[in-house]
Each structure stands twice: as C-alpha cells, then as structure tokens.
Amino acid sequence: MTSAPTAPPPVAPDLPAPQAPSARGVDNRAAYVSFGLAYVLGHGAAAASGGDTPLIALPGWLPMTLLGTGLVTGIVLATLAALRAQRGAAAPDALSGKLLGAAWIVAFAALFLAITGFTSVLDEPELQSVLWPAGSGLIVGLLYLAEGSVRRNLLHYGLGAWLALVSTAALSFASPGLFWVLAVAGGGAYALAAPLEHRRLRSLAQSPRL
Fold first, then answer.
1. Distance CA 93, CA 22 (A)
2. Could you list the mean pLDDT of each consecutive 10-residue stretch along the chain, which spans 210 residues?
3. Is 43 exposed, middle or buried (0-12, 13-18, 19+ CB in 10 A)?
4. Cβ(157)–Cβ(145) under 8 Å?
C-alpha cells in the first residue's frame, strides 16, 4: 500500500524588510523660516538704517542681533530636525548626519577665525559688518550643498547654490546695497523654499515604500 505524497507546507512570500528612516525626509521648514526671518529682518534692518540717507534710524547693534538670533535659531532647528530623521537609521546614515551636524560648528568657527584675523591684520574692524553677513551666507550655502548631496535633496542643494552665489555677489555692492541684495534675494529664496519643502515632504509621504 502506497501513501500519497505529502505536499510541502506553503511558503510565505518574502516581505520587504522595514526601511530605516531616510535622511531625505529631514523636515527643513522651521529652519528655512528662521533663516528667512534672519535675512529679511536682520539684513533688511541694516539696509533700511544704512547709507547717507537712512530710511529709518535704528541702533547699530540691532541688525546684527536680529541676524545672529535668526541664524543661531535656524542652526538649532536644522540640527534637531536632522537628529529626529536619523533615529533608527542605518549606521552609515547616522554617521553622515552627525558629521554634517559637526560641520556647522567647524565651518562657523573657521569663519570667525578668518574674519577676526583678516580685519585685525588690516586694522579695519569695521569690515566685520560686511564680511559677517556675506560670509555667513556663503558658509550656509556651502553646507546646504553638502547636505543636499548626501541626502539627495535637490531643493536643499539648489537653495545652497543660490545662497552661496548671492552672498558672494553681494560683496560687489557698497552698503546698504549689499544688505538689500541679501535681504531680497536671500530672504526671498527662503520664502520660496519653505512651501516647496512642504510639497517635497508630502510627496515623500505619499510615495510607496519598496
């Protein structure tokens, strides 16, 4: 008496492994708004109160304070957003995020040393009022280029390219023209980038996970 062959148990189909959070999902909206306000309020105040015929009389310390506050807040918000996106990420992605975060500190420390040394050697400390706005825009732009490349974020990369070019081109203008260029071209770029970032994140959320 022969027994019927036993059918093999059904094999469950391979399911895709859950993906770690992608660095492309970093939410830059809060940082963009903060940086944008720094450009519009800080550089705008410097432009409106500068020149031979200022539009409004403001204390000399106010524009730089507005700019510095916005930049520091934006850096903190950008760092926090990157850290939230890296939670649960693979080791290489997490390391990339930490290195990019450290790059902000190194870059601005180097900018501080460069501007301080340059103005000290030339004995022209008043140049700091021009070099800091243009230099900080250049540094932020270059960091955005690096972050955009690592995260494959075209919006971030494009914004970085624009900020780097605008910040250096602004040095061709005397004050207050330099500050008008930074306030309008730089602040306007951030104003455009914030809603575009919202649309990018919504597109990522709707894209299917493979």
1. 8
2. 51 44 71 94 91 84 89 86 69 73 88 94 88 92 92 94 96 91 96 94 75
3. buried
4. yes
CA 189/CA 159 separation, integer angstroms: 7
- Spatial separation of the C-alpha atoms in residues 192 and 182, rounded to whole Å: 15
The span from the first CA to the last CA of the chain, in angstroms, equals 50
Q: Which residues contact 61 (CB under 8 A, 6 or more apart)?
A: none
* Exposure letters 127-152 (e unless 16+ CB within 10 A, then b): eebbbbbbbbbbbbbbbbbbbbebbe
Residue 124 burial (10 A CB sphere; 0-12, 13-18, 19+): exposed
- DSSP letters, 132-159, are HHHHHHHHHHHHHHHHHHHHT-HHHHHH
DSSP result, 158-196: HHHHHHHHHHHHGGGS-TTHHHHHIIIIIHHHHHHHHHH
Q: Is the whole-model pTM more than 0.85?
A: no
Helix axes 154-169, 128-151, angle to 10 degrees: 160
Instruction: State the pLDDT at residue 151.
Output: 86
Q: What whole-number distance in Å separates Cα of residue 94 and Cα of residue 88?
A: 8
**Residues 128, 140 contacting (CB under 8 angstroms):** no
Mark 178-197 as b/e (b = at least 16 C-beta within 10 Å). bbbbbbbbbbebbeebbeeb
Token pair for 160: 């970085």
